[in-house]
Design brief:
Layout lengths: L2 E5 L6 H15 L2 E8 L8 H30 L4 E6 L2 H11 L3 E8 L8 H8 L8 E5 L4 H7 L1
Parallel strand pairs: 1-2, 1-4, 2-3, 4-5
Length: 151
């Protein structure tokens, strides 16, 4: 089975990447893996405090994931898988792709701010030649109706 890998973060454009992944997976009989990466700088404190912060970050990610997962299950019939990793986002995305041979496409949402599409899209675009799978970049401002029409 082929899977779409989509990155869950706090960006607005993440929503369209989730929608696109679920719609494409539903239309092609694929699955969805949702990856959330906790950056290491969130835990630069004493060990006890870092452990509490790590647990809180995981709870926040799981709650955020459950919103998307419910929509995917109810509307698209897709039961997504959540993977939480700790480290630098680029390195963790590469590791996830290399560790899971079923992942066939990386889906990212592009921001529309003046600063560009966002740091992750920019970094992944620069390093896309090193990735063994294609990247789909979904515009953050694309309407839900347009997404449904192209998937």
């Amino acid at each position: 089975m082929r899977k779409f890998l989509v990155v869950l973060d706090d960006s607005r454009e993440c929503l369209n990447a989730m929608r696109y992944s679920a719609l494409r997976a539903a239309h092609t009989g694929a699955g969805v893996t949702i990856l959330s990466v906790i950056p290491p700088e969130e835990f630069q404190h004493w060990i006890g405090v870092a452990d509490i912060m790590r647990a809180e970050a995981r709870e926040r990610i799981e709650a955020h994931f459950e919103v998307f997962a419910k929509w995917m299950r109810d509307r698209q019939g897709i039961d997504p898988e959540l993977v939480i990793r700790e480290g630098e986002p680029m390195a963790e995305i590469f590791s996830q792709v290399n560790e899971d041979p079923e992942i066939g496409v990386l889906v990212l949402g592009a921001g529309t701010e003046k600063g560009g599409p966002g740091p992750l899209v920019t970094q992944m675009s620069k390093n896309s030649g090193s990735l063994p799978i294609p990247i789909t970049i979904v515009p953050g401002e694309m309407s839900k109706e347009r997404l449904e029409a192209i998937t």
